[in-house]
Amino acid sequence: MVPQLASTQSYMPHSFNLSLTPYSNQPHNEESLSDSQRIPATAMGPPAKRRKRKAPTLRADAWEPYKARITELHVRQKLPLRQVKDTIERESSFQAGIRQYRTRISQWGLDKNIKPHEMSAVVRKRQRRKLIESQKGELTFTVRGNEVEPQKIDRWMKRNEIPENVVYAPSPAAYTPSACRYRQTDEDRLRQELSTLEIRYEDDHPETLRILYKLSEVLIDQGRYSSAEKMIRRLVEARQNVNGSDDNDMNEALDLLGGVLYFQGSYAKAERLHRRAFESSRRILGSEHPNTLRSMDYLAITYCEQGRLKEAEELWVQVKQGRLKEAEELEVQVIETRKRVLGHEHPDTLISISNLASTYSEQGRLKEAEELEVQVIETRKRVLGDEHLDTLISISNLASTYSNQGRLKEAEALKVQVVETRKRVLGHEHPDTLLSMSNLAFTDYDQGRLKEAEEL
């Protein structure tokens, strides 16, 4: 069963789904990581990297004497930007970072890359000409002086599953609940905002860091954990440069990095980061602050995940005898405090109750786990609605507990409900949908329905 990490509402606008890797035929549970996370670089975890020297801030007029030469090298001679940078430095005393070159090139309108919204407009016009205005000649398109090759347009359409025989009319993204996963449009918008901010401000400007954080969330929601990790490490480094290692924003960044490492199975590294965030938050904010409790929740989950290995070499077979008592004590403490500080129905309180249910399940205390899970489901249905993603996570957890109790028919009914709802809300290929299908396959397998399990 996967516990759920919590957060404070003021930070992250969504929750992560954590799922354990199954080590046997048993179905597994899932719970969401939280709505807010971030982190500091303290004594624990990897040694601090040597700080890079920050490139000097350059005003627009500082670039003007070199604009013609940069344009000649990059646009006419088609040299890569790093080579352009090296050439300019050899020929003059002008110094700038490669990221500053990229943003300046974009500001001058010389960027060769076609942005998603630009390609969307190209496809819309081409499809209209092809299917509605076929009596007219074929269109050619140029973006910033560069012709867009038809093969490039075809590849983009194929990648985005746009049929050739249908007029393309992109529409604004439909409204989704706050906890729903981000779509491609969110990523495109945030990347555009980030590009603009990098041109206008330094890398460690507060608004730049805010967008970095939100973009990292989007990448995590898309299941692109490696890309998210790179983005978050950049965020952590910037926070370290601005405020040092003992800072609330740094703690949030560290928790976010710990979360994405957790998703990739790096439980020991995730534990070190969450412990650093927890200890720093407790020192800065006190033991009962929501941020401290959030980090404490994450730390409890990493305890559950690590267990003790039966044999060091058996990397694929883990005996889950983790520090469950420590996790339970932390979770009970968090629940009691959150009920008092936030209220019984606050999302973070419910996340903590889910985490305790997960620990009970790991300890074999299935009846106690079931009672807590039913409580969370009923509250989330009332507060969030039947199809909210957090409600579905709770239903999936209860289904897993039913499976462990041998109540396979009841487990199957709940898992089918989760699969169908996620297909409708998230799509057939979303990681959460695929996870719920995998859980249903385990139940089919346990009932001897091997054909159905294989199909899933």
From TrEMBL:
Residues 16-27 have a biased composition (Polar residues). Residues 60-112 form the Clr5 domain. PANTHER family: AAA+ ATPASE DOMAIN-CONTAINING PROTEIN-RELATED (PTHR46082:SF11), ATP/GTP-BINDING PROTEIN-RELATED (PTHR46082). This is Clr5 domain-containing protein. It comes from the Eukaryota. Coiled coil: none annotated. Residues 16-57 are annotated as: Disordered. The lineage of its organism: Eukaryota, Fungi, Dikarya, Ascomycota, Pezizomycotina.
